[in-house]
Each structure stands twice: as structure tokens, then as C-alpha cells.
Amino acid sequence: MRIVLCYPVEPHHIAQIQAAAPDCEVVDAGQERIDELLPTADIFIGHAKVPVDWERVLKANRLRWIQSSAAGLDHCLVPGVIDSEIVVSSASGLFAPQVAEQTMTLLLDLLRSQGRFTRANARHEFIRLPTDDLRQKKIGIVGLGGNGRRIAKVLKPFDVSIVATDYFSFDPPAEVDRLLPADAVDEMLAEVDIAILALPLNAQTRGMFDADRFAKMRPGSYFINVARGQVVVESALVDALDSGHLRGAGVDVTEVEPLPDESPLWDRENVIITPHVGAQSRWRVDDTTVMVCENLRRFQAGKSLYNTVDKQLGFPSPEVVWHG
Ligand SMILES: NC(=O)C1=CN([C@@H]2O[C@H](COP(=O)(O)OP(=O)(O)OC[C@H]3O[C@@H](n4cnc5c(N)ncnc54)[C@H](O)[C@@H]3O)[C@@H](O)[C@H]2O)C=CC1
Ligand SMILES: O=C(O)C(=O)COP(=O)(O)O
């Protein structure tokens, strides 16, 4: 079998993968050669950030398993793959520690007026501006998967209460005071001071945060998005900020990336923007390779894989999510 890699591996990661699959040929395609080599793969491990001719891959009829090195599967869950026999597994939960740190960065910067202080610092102005507190805030997390759970765990010691929604129904971890079904999102938004998006992008969630939904949020609440920009209708977010209905927003992801120069999200003191760096970490490739090797051993032994995705849904069920 041929394993084609397309994530930023170093020679020692390739050696780990080869040791986990001694009978396989391991080829590191990188972004440069992924489109060319994907049709020759039995197993694809990675995240192609260049256009891939999926028709050609499906026509070659060789690929059996895609192990995405991203949690979001919007890059590979194309209709032809969904309808095929190809098994797809995600990187769900793998980046939860760093996504939670990124969430805290956005949230604390927003509440503690860091955007305004940073601008004032650039002008050498030492001015005391009002700040807000996390203490006693009610937080709503939309999507209690790997990232949502870790965000709840990191936030809880700040003396907050936490509600969440999820597609699945399960006993939530101790940090989460209440778990509601996905369709109770408006009920949750009406009662929380801060909404945090940690759900996948799919046909159901694309454009889910539109003008109607923002209107359901409590006046003066904050909005954080560490999921996917296209879950949000960005013009509606801008309107909600313009009208003062939302007090501020922190976004690691935007509808179009890079965020265009003319976007009205720029130049606002109550908007903190980071350039989709939530998954970045010095540990990322090491952590990914540990899970990849475990899944490779399971695949060869015919066992079920961590993070196997229900391709119709576009995300894995909680029992199979990798927690490291
Ligand atoms: N900012 C960044 O760099 C990163 C962004 N992401 C994004 O975050 C998403 C979540 O990542 P993980 O937590 O690792 O994935 P996950 O698969 O562990 O969790 C997603 C959760 O969302 C739930 N869900 C699905 N539809 C929902 C809905 N309509 N309402 C409420 N919950 C819903 C699922 O049941 C699941 O529990 C990814 O799909 C990806 O798009 C992930 C990693 C890094
Ligand atoms: O894992 C994900 O879904 C991410 O958003 C990470 O994105 P990246 O691979 O860092 O461009």
C-alpha cells in the first residue's frame, strides 16, 4: 500500500509513520506534489491547501482512507468522496489545547480592552480605559466536541457558568453546567453574555449566524469564532457591531481568508482578529503523528479508527473523538 503525506512532517515523523506501517511505501508529497500524487495513494494523510482534482482521484479508484490533518473537513469532503467507499477520519480534538489558548487570547483581549491599549501604546499614550470581567459571566459554547470541551475546561476557573449546544446528546463534562440540543441555540444565545463558536462548517451550519441569529443574542454580549468564518454571515456580524447590539467580537477565522483589505471588520477597537492561527503549536505535527500512527496500526489490524467521520454529517461522534 502507498501512503501519501501532505502535512509539514520532518524526517523523524516519516520514520515514525514508516515504523507504524512497515509494509507500506511512505511518500511525502508536500503541497507541491499533492495534486500529482494523490491519485497514486491508497492512504492519504494530510491537508491539501492547493486545488486537488478529486475527479481524477476518484477515477483512479485507489484511495481507501483519508486521514485529515485538519479538524475541519471542508477541504476533502467533496460530494464524490462522500458518495464513495473512502473512509474519512479527522483531526478532531487534536488541536484543542491551542484552540482553547487562542480562544482565551481573543476573549481576554476583548474584555480587557487590549485592542485599544495596543493602539494607544503605538501612540505612546498611557491611558486607563474601562475594562470588563470574565467573572460571573454566562458563556455559551456552540459545539461541544474536542475544542468546545477544552475551552470549557480552561474557562471554568474564571468563575463563569457554561452552557453548550451540540448535535449529539451525551453527559457533558463537569465544567459544563448544561448541554442543550443543537436546535436550542437561540434559547442559549438569549441567555449568555459570550457566545463561542466551536462547531464544524457543513451544509447545515454554513451561514448559521445571520442577522436573525445575531438578533437573538443578548444586547451587549460578545461573540467569538474559532470554528470557520463561513458559519457566519460577516455583513450581519458587522451590522450587529455597528448597531451596538454586540459589544465586541473576536475572530480567528473569517468568511474570506486572508481577510480582504476593504473588510469593515478591520480598524475596530472592539474587534480582535487573528489570522486562523488557532491550530498552530510547536506540538502540532508531533501530536498529529502520534494519532496518525495509532490509526495506521488500527487500519492495518482492521479495527475502527479514532475520529472516523460520518461522511453525511461531516464530523465524528463523541465516542470516537481523540483526546490525546
Ligand atoms: N481556528 C482554527 O485554527 C481551528 C478551527 N477548527 C474548527 O473547529 C471545528 C471543531 O473542531 P473540533 O472540536 O476539533 O471538532 P469535533 O468534531 O471534535 O467537534 C465538533 C462538535 O460540533 C458538534 N456540532 C455539529 N453540528 C453542530 C451544530 N449545528 N450545533 C452545535 N454543535 C454541532 C458535533 O456534534 C461535535 O461534537 C472544526 O470543524 C474546524 O472547522 C478546528 C481546529 C483549529
Ligand atoms: O484543523 C482545522 O480545522 C484548522 O482550522 C486548522 O487549519 P490549518 O490546517 O492550520 O490551516
Automatic annotation (TrEMBL):
GO MF annotations in UniProt: NAD binding; phosphoglycerate dehydrogenase activity
D-isomer specific 2-hydroxyacid dehydrogenase catalytic domain segment(s): 5-309
Keyword set, alphabetical order: NAD, Oxidoreductase
Entry annotated with the keyword Transmembrane: no
Residue stretches making up the D-isomer specific 2-hydroxyacid dehydrogenase NAD-binding domain: 104-278
EC number: 1.1.1.95
Classification via SUPFAM superfamilies: Formate/glycerate dehydrogenase catalytic domain-like, NAD(P)-binding Rossmann-fold domains
InterPro entries named among the record's database cross-references: D-isomer_2_OHA_DH_cat_dom, D-isomer_DH_CS, D-isomer_DH_NAD-bd, NAD(P)-bd_dom_sf
Primary enzyme class: oxidoreductase
Family: Belongs to the D-isomer specific 2-hydroxyacid dehydrogenase family.
Protein name: D-3-phosphoglycerate dehydrogenase
